[in-house]
């Protein structure tokens, strides 16, 4: 295929200029060490993608706290000691001209506790995951605030590691998505009920990240366009568009990518 057309034309995300629009989407590498540190195996996964000329690589979902972890050998950014390894990975990608965003995630109820040694599984509400049988505990507002801060701290670590931006993972049934959808969010407080209230958690995460990383660091969000998972109802596209518009307003003008939406 000839390298022309809109996919191969430049785009700006906030302050970041990219030469093309074909990005490497997030796919969990599950190649980290058992404690979530970058391994040579992770670097070897990304270098050929960068060598291939991919303008932007988004990492697989990275856990922001130990509680947020959903898979063995998943990358973590839960502590400062993860920064040097992440920096080594980003440097290896930058050496071939690609940019790299870190995808930040909390799994919420979407985890098999025995799989990762989870002892305290939380979600918006205590709704059993019918696929895995996992029954989460409903979070208190204090816990919600703590997780918001953990997202922000994780974003700050990614910035210090040299990433070019971060992506909030608000798709595929993980915690941010669990707050969005009424099936998993049965809360009666300010985090549940109307679509605006179910979006509050995501907005707070965004604001905390923005406060941590400053005005110029790209922060993007992954959302489903249609949200149906096995054995659980999700949001319709029309509702997800409204959520996207709320998040876009949160993010200000949003650069070319915001306008393209
Ligand atoms: C092996 C594998 C791992 C994945 N890991 C992630 C992930 O960590 N984060 C994420 O947002 N999506 C993940 N995905 C989903 C993909 O990023 C992508 O959204 C999916 O393949 C569907 O493509 P679409 O979004 O273009 O419809 C994964 C997909 C696969 C096949």
Write the layout of secondary structure elements.
Elements: E1 11-13, E2 16-18, E3 23-24, H1 40-51, E4 56-63, H2 83-94, E5 99-105, H3 113-116, E6 122-123, E7 137-138, H4 141-161, E8 165-170, H5 175-180, H6 195-198, H7 200-213, E9 219-223, H8 237-250, H9 255-260
Helix pairs in contact: 1-2, 2-4, 4-7
The structure holds flavin mononucleotide.
Flavin mononucleotide (FMN) binds next to strand 4.
Q: Give the radius of gyration.
A: 18 Å
Strands in their spatial order, largest beta sheet = 3-4-5-8-9
Q: What is the helix content?
A: 25-40%
Q: What structural class should be given to the helix and strand makeup?
A: alpha/beta
Q: What is the makeup of the main sheet? A: 5 strands, parallel
Mean of residue pLDDT values? 95
CATH top level is: Alpha Beta
The total count of helices amounts to 9
Number of separate domains: 1
**CATH fold descriptor:** TIM Barrel
Beta-strand residue percentage: 5-15%
Note the run of SSEs as H and E.
Answer: EEEHEHEHEEHEHHHEHH
Q: Could you name the ranges where pLDDT drops below 50 across 5 or more consecutive residues?
A: 254-261
Q: How far apart lie the N and C ends?
A: 26 Å
User: What coarse outline follows from CA principal-axis ratios?
Assistant: globular
**Using DSSP, what is the number of strands?**
9
**Which homologous superfamily in CATH is the superfamily?**
Aldolase class I
Oligomer: single chain
CATH architecture: Alpha-Beta Barrel
Cofactors, ions and other ligands in the entry: flavin mononucleotide
């Amino acid at each position: 295929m000839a390298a022309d057309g809109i996919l191969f034309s430049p785009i700006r995300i906030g302050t970041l200029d990219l030469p093309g629009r074909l990005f490497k989407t997030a796919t969990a590498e599950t190649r980290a060490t058992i404690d979530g540190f970058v391994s040579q195996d992770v670097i070897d996964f990304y270098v050929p993608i960068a060598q291939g000329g991919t303008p932007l690589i988004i990492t697989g979902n990275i856990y922001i706290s130990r509680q947020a972890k959903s898979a063995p050998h998943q990358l973590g950014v839960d502590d400062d000691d993860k920064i040097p390894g992440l920096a080594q990975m980003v440097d290896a990608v930058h050496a071939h001209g690609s940019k790299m965003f870190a995808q930040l995630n909390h799994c919420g109820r979407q985890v098999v506790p025995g799989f990762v040694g989870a002892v305290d599984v939380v979600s918006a509400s205590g709704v059993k995951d019918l696929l895995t049988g996992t029954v989460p505990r409903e979070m208190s507002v204090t816990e919600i605030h703590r997780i918001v801060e953990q997202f922000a701290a994780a974003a700050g670590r990614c910035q210090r590691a040299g990433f070019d931006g971060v992506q909030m993972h608000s798709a595929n049934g993980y915690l941010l998505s669990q707050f969005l959808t009424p099936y998993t969010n049965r809360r009666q407080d300010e985090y549940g009920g109307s679509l605006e209230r179910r979006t509050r958690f995501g907005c707070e995460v965004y604001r905390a990240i923005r406060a941590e990383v400053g005005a110029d660091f790209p922060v993007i969000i992954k959302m489903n366009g249609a949200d149906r998972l096995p054995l659980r109802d999700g949001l319709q596209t029309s509702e997800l568009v409204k959520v996207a518009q709320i998040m876009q307003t949160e993010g200000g003008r949003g650069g070319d990518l915001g306008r393209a939406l």
